[in-house]
Amino acid sequence: MPLTEEQKAERTQKRRMTNALKEEARAHRDEARRQEWREKGMYLTREQAAAGDLCRGCGLPVIDNLGSWPGTMYLTDEQRVMYDADQERYREMHPNCDAHRWSMAGSRATHCGYCCPPIPISREQAESIHRILATVSERREEELEIWARTLTCGHRVEQRVHHTNREPSLSTQWCPECQITRGVVTSEKVAEAAERMAKANRRRDDKIARAERELKKAEKAAADARKKLADIQAKR
């Protein structure tokens, strides 16, 4: 028997909740690991990494100065053997981490996003990010669309997203009421940027019209004052 529309909607909601809970658990896992790194002082500075200190997560060099791997299609036969051996070692060291990989430019050692504390960004990278954020901060409020996001706890939070983005990109969000990160079950756009822009333009036009009326009143008052002054001076 085919499912009713109500049953389909119920299944969809259950699937969304399951996915949201999975993302939430993953976020909590990663947050706990970052807290562990901080408490145990496992983060290396860029200077320590450059000096040859080993990763405090996996014990491999962070910067091995062996040069970055070329694209896999450009590997020589000898490089292919070494590359495959490195990949196999990585899989043996991180069989169930389910995390991204990272490495430093000019190095071949591959590190696990869950096991290996990352290295702080360089000054040049920080300046580049600052420039990008400065550009973003210049965007006008009316260019942002407002999304209402329902979390696994049932609370709803608002998120502003620039109208050039289809939807919020993150699958988790901080819940101010629960004071923890929650998975996002559904996202609903509640305010269109175009509508907000139109309202902002109307407010701007109203302010301009009001200012023009006030200017005309001021100009008329000034003209009346000049006429009155001229009449007084003529009677001397």
Offer a concise description of the structure.
The protein has five helices and six strands, in the order H-H-H-E-E-H-E-E-E-E-H. It is 49% helix and 15% strand. A hairpin with a 4-residue loop joins strand 3 and strand 4 (156-162).
Describe the structure.
With 236 residues, this protein is an alpha+beta fold. It folds into three domains: 122 residues, no CATH class; 50 residues, no CATH class; 45 residues. Helices cover 49% and strands 15% of the residues. It has five helices and six strands; from the N terminus they run αααββαββββα. The strands form two sheets. The protein has a four-stranded antiparallel beta sheet. Strand 5 and strand 6 form a beta hairpin. It is elongated, with a radius of gyration of 30 Å. The termini are far apart. The mean pLDDT is 88.
